[in-house]
Design goal:
The structure holds two protein chains of two kinds. Chain A is mainly alpha-helical. Chain A has two domains: 31 residues; 221 residues, Orthogonal Bundle (MetI-like fold). Chain A is 86% helix and 0% strand. Chain A is globular, with a radius of gyration of 23 Å. The model of chain A has no long low-confidence stretch (mean pLDDT 90). By secondary structure, chain B is of the alpha/beta class. Chain B has two domains: 192 residues, 3-Layer(aba) Sandwich (Rossmann fold); 65 residues, no CATH class. In chain B, 32% of the residues lie in helices and 24% in strands. Chain B contains eight helices and ten strands. In chain B, the strands form two sheets. In chain B, strands 6-7-8-3-9-10 form a six-stranded mixed sheet, with helices on both faces. In chain B, strands 2-1-4-5 form a four-stranded antiparallel sheet, covered by helices on one side. In chain B, helix 7 packs across helix 8. The chains are: A mainly alpha, B alpha/beta.
């Protein structure tokens, strides 16, 4: 096992090298900061405007949380319904796949038109882009249950619900978490995209406003915040996974 | 006269695959008295597992009947209650500790948790699993996993144990160890066991009687008694009665076989 510092070192070195090259280029070329600000300026100006950026970050986080929770509830409900009924599977699966073919660019303005400038259209966009990986994660996980395991439980006199609760559900958790990790990376982007279309507050509208006043440094600062949130949420999901299904990682590591 | 613990009569089974009909079982009959150890042996793919699923009540037979202690159980809700079933893979759930795996059947039946744990816990030592109650299955060796799976089976206290090639996936040494152990423990507890295997020596070491099946469609080629006291240790392999029984089983297997038995040929 490598020590944590050793594991993150390559990533830090690469980031530092890119930033150094970027800084050197902007200074040597004399390019206007409205076009490409040096990273030092992004950092300083971002810090100077930290209160404003934070006040725009909170709504984005709220939308992400509500939309993602909605996606987990709907995705799980859809997956369970699909698992219990072949008719539901036939009816729902094509609709689920089609929902992913909807261009969010086109739908987001419509959602704003229907639901106003409040939190609802943003949460819906987040849910729209995240519930599919969650649903598929569950459905694939349920389907991976061995027939022999179901037979064993039936031989013990288990009802269909007991088979689901005792084998299919816990057995599907690793697959569910894989879907969850994919979904969480889309979640923040979804919220910001919806804000671009129309919002009072939020990182998306912040970026648009700064862009219009040629504050490229603050746009980039907001992008950095966005990326940091996504990474943090991804790490939190992984940590949650390890806490909920510790047996999964342990048994995988012994098999290697 | 008391009826036998298990009486299986006239089992037929066909599968329809497109426009083809595959006959798997043809008039299979067998029986086991209380405390008897009976093995079912047959060539690969002859339908042993199908027969087992039918006896266990997991699959419907085309025709035939399963009686337990004189009562017809086929097609009844009570069917599964007569049998505790151990499949080929151990199927220990990785998310449950060993103890929670072994109490699974009791939990399904609604036995209170403390009572279930007490019942299973009482068996851990005899099953060589003492100290592993709270371990996760991935920490167990192959032999221990198989013993945990057997514990999960017997703790249900059903009248008849159905063991479907329980040692098939183990290495030869572990398998021999477990066969000897199962011989001892099954006599000690007086279990009524029906064992499916394709290992002739395993059947001979463990069984009172061996039911030899023909290739598909399977029917009973011969039933061979092993006239040696149980439990048997590995030393009986050299016993004259053992060798005679072995010859009988091999002859019955070969007689029903379309290709010469030479020990090769496809595995499972």
């Amino acid at each position: 096992m490598i020590r944590p510092i050793g594991r993150v070192l390559p990533a830090l070195l690469l980031a530092a090298a890119i930033l150094a090259a970027w800084e050197a280029y902007t200074r040597a070329s004399g390019i206007r900061p409205q076009v490409l600000p040096p990273p030092s300026r992004v950092l300083l100006e971002g810090w100077a405007f930290r209160g404003l950026i934070w006040s725009h970050t909170l709504p984005t986080l709220g939308e992400t949380a509500i939309g993602f929770s909605l996606a987990i509830v709907l995705g799980t409900a859809a997956a369970v319904a699909i698992d219990f009924s072949r008719a539901v599977r036939r009816a729902l699966y094509p609709a689920l796949v089609a929902s992913q073919a909807i261009p969010v660019v086109a739908v987001a303005p419509l959602l704003v038109l229907w639901f106003g400038f409040g939190i609802a259209p943003k949460a819906l966009v987040v849910a729209l882009v995240t519930f599919f990986p969650i649903t598929v994660g569950w459905v694939d996980g349920f389907a991976s249950t061995e027939r022999a395991a179901s037979n064993l439980l039936r031989s013990m006199g288990a009802s269909r619900w007991q088979v689901f609760r005792l084998v299919r559900l816990p057995g599907a958790l690793p697959s569910f978490f894989s879907g969850l990790r994919i979904a969480i990376t889309y979640a923040v982007i979804g919220a910001i995209f919806a804000e671009y279309v129309g919002a009072k507050r939020g990182l998306g509208i912040f970026m648009q406003l700064q862009q219009n006043s040629f504050r490229t440094d603050l746009v980039i600062a907001a992008v950095v915040v966005t990326a940091a949130i996504s990474v943090a949420l991804f790490l939190a999901t992984s940590a949650l996974e390890r806490a909920v299904i510790p047996w999964h990682h342990a048994s995988r590591e012994t098999e290697r | 006269m008391t009826p036998p613990r298990l009486l299986v009569r006239g089992i037929h089974k066909r599968f329809v695959d497109g426009d083809r009909t595959i006959e798997v079982l043809r008039d299979v009959a067998l029986e086991a008295g209380a405390g008897e150890f009976v093995s079912v042996i047959g060539p690969s793919g002859c339908g042993k597992s199908t027969l087992f699923n039918i006896i266990a009540g997991l699959e419907d037979a085309g025709a035939g009947a399963v009686h337990v202690d004189g009562d017809l159980v086929t097609g009844r809700a009570a069917h599964t209650e007569a049998f505790a079933y151990m499949p080929q893979q151990d199927l220990l759930f990785p998310w449950r500790r060993v103890m929670d795996n072994t109490t699974l059947g009791l939990e399904i039946r609604g036995v209170p948790r403390a009572a279930a744990r007490a019942r299973a816990g009482a068996l851990f030592a005899r099953f060589g699993l003492a100290g592993f109650e709270e371990a996760y299955p991935y920490t167990l060796s192959g032999g221990m996993r198989q013993r945990a799976a057997l514990l999960r089976t017997v703790v249900q206290e059903r009248p008849i144990l159905l063991l479907d090639e329980p040692f098939g996936a183990l290495d030869a040494l572990t398998r021999m160890e477990l066969q000897e152990w199962l011989a001892a423990v099954s006599s000690e507890f007086g279990w009524t066991v029906l064992l499916v295997t394709h290992d002739v020596r395993e059947a001979l070491l463990l069984s009172d009687r061996i039911v030899v099946l023909t290739p598909r469609p399977a029917s009973v080629a011969a039933t061979i008694a092993v006239p040696l006291p149980r439990p048997r240790a590995l030393e009986v392999l050299a016993d004259r009665a053992f060798i005679e029984a072995e010859t009988g089983v091999l002859r019955a297997l070969r007689a029903g076989s379309a290709v010469p038995v030479d020990g090769s040929g496809g595995g499972r």
